UniProtKB/TrEMBL annotation:
Subunit-level organization: Homodimer.
EC number(s) stated in the UniProt entry for this protein: 5.3.1.1
CDD domains assigned: TIM (cd00311)
Organism for this UniProt entry: Canna indica (Indian-shot)
Stated name of the protein: Triosephosphate isomerase, cytosolic
Keywords: Cytoplasm, Gluconeogenesis, Glycolysis, Isomerase
């Protein structure tokens, strides 16, 4: 069965309520392809989740950018999976490289978060990716495999997981991976899933690419056989996000 194209917009730590309203109205007016061929999920900062939920078109979904590894409680500054469920937020991004690198989230910690979020009924966009140094030393596949393994060891059902390959050197740098570079790592990740999880999970799990995706480069990336969509940062705050969503047609017309 074909994997449904998936486009996530990670707004990161950006925006005022006025700006958020503007972004949402641009999306609401956007002429996008049918939700039969693409899942669109936008991820505002926590404080804007209710606002975005109240305004956003009903064919788009919402993700939080993180959640805690276990049940809520005395964890100052954290947001629990239970709270997201309570607010009817269906998705969460976990293991983003900005959290891994700036806040020291380990592979095991991210794996634990993915397992806990899934156990509470959330859908997870789980991020993996290598640094420039790791790429230059030839460690890319080992790094993303280790990150994926820490997740795979803790979960038994991949149905509600989207895997996002985001090479750190391509994030926010304007230095996008070439379609061949993205395809190579996506292929390796799928092979890893096939060998270490199952053929079915490898075939059905969406592996999306993130790192300087924009309206101009999305189509060529989308044409790669193992690229099932995108996780977009900077360009998800701009009108061109609509063009990125519509790159789903590259797949449906293939
Ligand atoms: O980190 C990203 C999405 O999660 C990618 O960010 P940019 O698209 O701004 O490079």
């Amino acid at each position: 069965m074909a994997r449904k194209f998936f486009v996530g917009g990670n707004w990161k730590c950006n925006g005022t309520s006025e700006e958020v309203k503007k972004i949402v109205s641009t999306l609401n007016e956007g002429n996008v392809v049918s939700s039969d061929i693409v899942d669109v999920v936008v991820s505002p900062p926590f404080v804007f989740l209710p606002l975005v939920k109240s305004l956003l078109r009903s064919d788009f979904q919402i993700a939080a950018q993180n959640c805690w590894i276990q049940k809520g409680g005395a964890y100052t500054g954290e947001i629990s999976a239970e709270m997201l469920v309570n607010l009817d937020i269906p998705w969460v991004i976990l293991g983003h490289s900005e959290r891994r690198l700036l806040l020291g989230e380990s592979n095991e910690f991210v794996g634990g978060k993915v397992a806990y979020a899934l156990s509470k009924g959330l859908n997870v966009i789980a991020c993996v990716g290598e640094t420039l140094e790791q790429r230059e030393s030839g460690a890319t596949v080992d790094v993303v495999a280790a990150q994926t393994k820490a997740i795979a060891e803790r979960i038994s059902d991949w149905t509600n997981v989207v895997l996002a390959y985001e090479p750190v050197w391509a994030i926010g740098t304007g230095k996008v991976a070439t379609p061949a570079q993205a395809q190579e790592v996506h292929y390796e990740l799928r092979k890893w899933l096939q060998i270490n999880v199952s053929v079915e999970v490898a075939e059905s799990t969406r592996i999306i690419y993130g790192g300087s995706v924009n309206g101009a480069n999305c189509k060529e990336l989308a044409a790669q056989p193992d690229v099932d969509g995108f996780l977009v940062g900077g360009a998800s705050l701009k009108p061109e996000f609509v063009d990125i969503i519509n790159s789903a047609t590259v797949k449906s017309s293939a």
